[in-house]
Amino acid sequence: MSKILQLPATRIDLPVSDDLEFFDEGFSNEYDFYNKIWNKRYGRDLWMLEISQMGIGYGRAASGEYYAYYSDPQSKKLDRVYMYLSEGIKDNFPLNVFVRGHEEAHILQPTVLNSYDLLNAKLSEIGIRRTVETQPPENLYDQISDVGGLVALHFANVSVGNSSDDNWQRFLNDFPRNSEQQFRNALDLFLETN
Ligand SMILES: [Zn+2]
């Protein structure tokens, strides 16, 4: 545990084992992302069948993804973590910052690097008293990732929840999930409302 992974959007410094490889692909596309993983993992490109089974290329223009690779699922030894943001939001500030923070928080989830405590420390650091569960059920991971997205917006000087802030309004207008319960719950936690 002597290497530090710096997550720039949420400004979290994450201690990881020395042999963990982290691939931050930045803005890319889903096909290139998985193709890179498949080439390292299987030594080949994606098959057409996999592309269709994984739904690659459909409806994920305003998002990003992470991928955790375990060489030995039994021992839960995590070898590699990959992350990318869809190139369609490259020039879309502040949505791109939110998505980056969302994906960074996925890396902290119990099934990857199990460090939601660091997200809580960051919430506390920016003056938010609420915390996320550190060992939540998996169906809460995306909601907690939305909290990470809001932390990233905060650090990008977006006034979260402030309807008179142009960047906040732009984000809400551009964010396809802005009315979903998951996002509203994350926003309630961040604003300490509800
Ligand atoms: Zn997610």
Poorly predicted segments: none
- How many structural domains? 1
Helical residue percent band: 40-55%
Mean pLDDT comes to 93
**Separation of termini?**
38 Å
Number of strands: 5
Structural category: alpha+beta
Rg (CA only)? 17 Å
**Share of residues in strands:** 15-25%
Chemical compounds bound to the protein: zinc ion
Give the CA-based shape: globular
Order of helices and strands: EEEHHEEHHHHH
Largest β-sheet summary: 3 strands, mixed
Provide an overview of this structure.
The structure is a single chain. By secondary structure, the protein is α+β, with helices and mostly antiparallel strands. The chain has helices at 30-42, 48-53, 95-108, 116-125, 141-155, 166-174, 181-191; strands at residues 3-7, 12-16, 21-28, 64-72, 77-86. The strands form two sheets. It has a three-stranded mixed sheet with strand order 3-5-4. The chain has one domain (3-191). It is globular. Strand 4 (64-72) and strand 5 (77-86) form a beta hairpin. The structure holds zinc ion (ZN).
Sequence-ordered SSE layout with sheet pairings:
Elements: E1 3-7, E2 12-16, E3 21-28, H1 30-42, H2 48-53, E4 64-72, E5 77-86, H3 95-108, H4 116-125, H5 141-155, H6 166-174, H7 181-191
Parallel strand pairs: 3-5
Antiparallel strand pairs: 1-2, 4-5
Helix pairs in contact: 3-5, 5-7
The structure holds zinc ion.
